[in-house]
């Protein structure tokens, strides 16, 4: 069978893995700061954080119930046991418990001396100020031991961790009021092109609204960076080079879109050289998003994306966002995606890894996501992205995928995102 190959494929294309290793390289930005715990979500820890106290701080009841003496538990006695007192969470501990008696304990209450187990209140019969057990109790039942969750002085959050609700909870419980984090990465977003107008601006005859800047700002915004809108420049080498020379010192990363293909009107790569930096234009084995460039001006990294919006989004997800993670002090990783099944035939010419908008339409018999390709393809078509639940991936080395065939799916959202 004669398999048609992608006409844009050919020798010299960089694979995603090769490009990732070169583009997403280097170390985190310098500088740290201490921030209050209430403002630490999304920030990246600059050093390991250790617990100042054990968790729990003391032996405590795991539920509402009654504490019994070690002798009675070991002997398997069922009672009746007179209830001699009660302890609530945060309340003063009752006197030491003696054999043959019980103490009322609420969840979180400190375990009085002599208590060796707590019986759930649902498993006792209460009568006349005494209780009798309905089920056998074992030593240690329903007691949270001091330090069983977190040992005092142990590492609770490693360096290079993006803090979310989980981390803030354990940090607060351990008494941490502020954390040392990597300073925010300073990011600038710049569009290029004579044809561009800002959203809401009146359009000239053959002008288009700039969709890339708002989209890329949203993609790169987050707790570990500050993202500035640098506006747009026309397709003029001198103006773009002058602008980059003027602003680069204020940023750790500048992401541009447009002007990267190499035509007479494409100046993104040359402008970086003229501004005193270096940039390398490469052809990626990616569809959409073949033209790409990366480099630096001084300490400022520069990523140059294609101007077509879907291609710009794919390039940001594959490379610019992982680079931002790396600069933030995180362990940057290639997106892995989920194993999924094609709901219908997907046509693909080998040669480039293709990313297509796809909708989740069900589950396969094996329980895998069943996804349907949306739209007719094209790096400038935005509407299919709005209806999509994620991007489906067709590897470069395979052809058409029949209905029921395997593919990889990158969902845009998760149910339990922190």
What does the model show?
With 418 residues, the protein is of the alpha/beta class. The protein has eight helices and 26 strands. It has helices spanning 16-23, 70-75, 165-173, 212-220, 237-247, 268-274, 309-328, 383-387; strands spanning 32-36, 49-50, 60-61, 65-69, 81-87, 102-105, 115-120, 124-127, 130-133, 143-144, 155-157, 178-182, 185-192, 196-197, 208-209, 225-233, 253-257, 278-283, 286-287, 291-297, 300-305, 338-342, 353-363, 369-373, 390-394, 406-411. Strands 7-4-6-5-9-8 form a six-stranded mixed β-sheet. Belongs to the MoeA family. It comes from Methylobrevis albus. Its cofactor is Mg(2+).
Portion in helices: 10-25%
User: Count of helices?
Assistant: 8
Strand content: 25-35%
Question: Span from first to last CA?
Answer: 48 Å
Mean pLDDT: 91
Q: Strands of the biggest beta sheet: in what spatial order?
A: 7-4-6-5-9-8
Give a short account of the largest sheet.
6 strands, mixed
Shape: elongated
Number of strands: 26
Backbone structural class: alpha/beta
- Rg from alpha-carbon coordinates: 30 Å
Low-confidence region ranges: none
